[in-house]
Amino acid sequence: MKIRINPVAAFDTLFIANQLQKKNGSFSIPELHIFGYLACLLWLYREQPIADWEYNFVGTELGAPFSQDMDTAANDFLEVSLFYRSHERLQITDLGIQKLINYEKFTLNKKRTEYLYAACSSTLALSVGMVCTALSNEPELKRSNATPASRLLLEELARSQLYDQFSILHTAFYGRSDDLRLPAVTWLSALYSSSMSELA
Amino acid sequence: MVSDPARTFKSMDEYYNYTRTFSGNYFRGRILGSDEGEAEITLVFNLGDYRYEICRGMFEPDELRRLTIKEYHRDLAVLETDGLSRSERNRAYIEYFVRHSNVSTFEEFAFLQHFVFSFDEQRKTLFWNQAIMERVLYRTFGIEPDMAKQADLLRREIEKRASDVRNRQWEATRLRRRINEIQSKVQSVPGAQETYDSLITTHELLSEQFDEETKLLNEIEASVKDANLKLAEHSMKETALRDEYALFFERSFNHRPSIAEHPLIIQTIHDKACGLCGNQEAYAIDTVLRKSKEKICPICDSEVNPEPQTAEDIKRLEDIDRSLSQIKQAIRDVLHLIKGLNEEESKLRQKWVSTKTQLDEFNQKNNTTLDALRRVLNEGGLSTSLTIYAEQLASLEKEKNDAYSQREVLRNQLQTIQKSLEKSYVDVEKDFVKKFADLAHQFLGMPLTVQLDANNSDGPKLIVSVRGSTRREQQQLSESQRFFLDIALRMALTQHMSDPSSLGGMFIDTPEGSLDIAYEKRAGDMLAMFAKSGHQIFMTANLNSSQLLLALARSCGRQNMQLCRMTDWAELTTVQQEEESLFNEAYAVIEQAMDA
């Protein structure tokens, strides 16, 4: 039986695909999951309830985030010509962009675009590869990588370490700009440096 | 020390004290009466930089016959014990042992030795024994070394306070009965009418206040009910709208695209090669472009009527989105209203409970007096002794409430150290889970892990997951899986707790008994993995066709394994003596495996 599409995850998938294509010319399915997860983390940074994100992420054994709902949407989009394959990567079609323009107007999606946009904009300061490396050092994904099984991410027990890091960011940006891109890039840069020093 | 299999674990101190006494008599009857004085056991072991040699009589759990503690590398004695009495020697041993091992108490060491470092014939598992698991987690992962002791004490105190509450309640009930009994012995007192009037006035005031508060409480409860009903109504509408939204949203992807929008055509134009035949000539691509704009299918020549997403569909989605936004706002408003009402209800309820308690206490204290006063005012007699009993009853009620409050304070303290445990566990989870998963995977051959469950009312516990599915109940695993996963957990805990310069070991008693043949070799490999990482295993095993010992011997080899023949010094039965050649054959096979 075909899995029913989750409209919110489908919108996020289209939005991220369009942003990544604008910034990098193309995108891949794992990148959609990574930037979707980053947007969800920024949602938590702003102290929004995790349940309101409306779909879950799983941490794979490789330490990468994965959302079943985003995956279903991306594969459906390939079937209906909203995405197409270009060599090893994907591109969004004009039809896909037209759909996105239609859905962006909806209030259901409006609130999310700030988070999705901030997540994708991190690629202006850091390459996609650096964002991936940095995010793999995020406490939840790091835990997931360390244990030999896939696990649901952002459950209550594990969120405390994340909130500790966010609290430092809140303090650093207190009274300054509301632009989410600032804490996003700062946090990712710190995670990236930490990854590099661990490798060294 | 030998533990009593029938004894339920309550706390580390209680376990140690009981087991020490139990051990003092355990060997009586197992050792000839004439040998009791001579029977003793000597143990030599290394602890960090020190070598200990202790000798204890089999019936003297609180004494030591000999004790030597030397610095291992310099062969230098650190303690002279010749001038000490046997019990002083035992106390010195405990004091030095605690200092050199970094356990917080000797009781804690006895607990760890019995429940973590030993897997014996009692087959008690950690995974499915909450009281023991909780203490082990605090000891292993707690930030402070005496955290297990703190948790142990707090749990014990919480149970004691709960028992106090029950006892005081029972006493209070008994006293109330007594008050009723003495009603008949009431004697007359002066000023009965004044006392009666004063009591009645107080009662009427309290009753009026209680009635008023009950009315207000009922009204606010009705408002909460209405608001919840409204919330359910809005939530139902939201669910229906979301379903409709999802349906239209999905429908918007299901329309048949025009020929030009077909994935094959898009791919053809992008790759500049026909998606069907692969022709890359310019004329072929031009033809595809031309045909893709026509209203005839290039494959079957049928007329094509593309079904573009209609403006109505988008309009409908917009309408649903608007309705959803409105209903969400309505839900937020109702939730806000409910929050306010709940806060108000909570305050009112507190007042109502307080008034009710006052009224109940008044009734408990004065009903007997009032009845008696009524009788006296009618009959001319009253007893004053009821006041004394009423005071005793009030005192009991106070003690009960105090015990209840103390229990809550202790629970909060336990919760604080549990939060600290959770944090420190998350910090080391990566290393610990890997240790466990590596060992257990060696045995089970499938991916598995452990997770800390902190939402358990009996305290934190570790939950094992096999192939992603959690096994909270014992019956979800076979006996052999249960026992060997538990041994893997103990090994991982031992590895985690060990000082790198002085690795801890394990004592395992005949583990092969529970295994089916498929797992024997794997179990041997798992034990070998632990032993080869530098941790010693002291294990007893039956001589039979089990592959466990052979796998262990093959994997460890002679340099990592020492075989001791218990048949050389144990008293053999007649049957065993007749079949001694079988023992020798079995030994020979194991010896060969060690050399292989």
Automatic annotation (TrEMBL), chain A:
Q: Which domain of life is it from?
A: Bacteria
Q: What is this protein called?
A: Uncharacterized protein
Species annotation: Methylophilus rhizosphaerae
TrEMBL record, chain B:
Q: Does the keyword Coiled coil belong to this entry? A: yes
The record's annotation in SUPFAM superfamilies points to: P-loop containing nucleoside triphosphate hydrolases (SSF52540)
The record's keywords, sorted A to Z, are:
Coiled coil
Question: This protein's superkingdom?
Answer: Bacteria
The UniProt entry's coiled-coil ranges are 386-413
PANTHER family per UniProt: ABC TRANSPORTER ABCH.3 (PTHR32114)
Give the protein name, as stated in the record.
Answer: Uncharacterized protein
Q: What is the species of this protein? A: Methylophilus rhizosphaerae
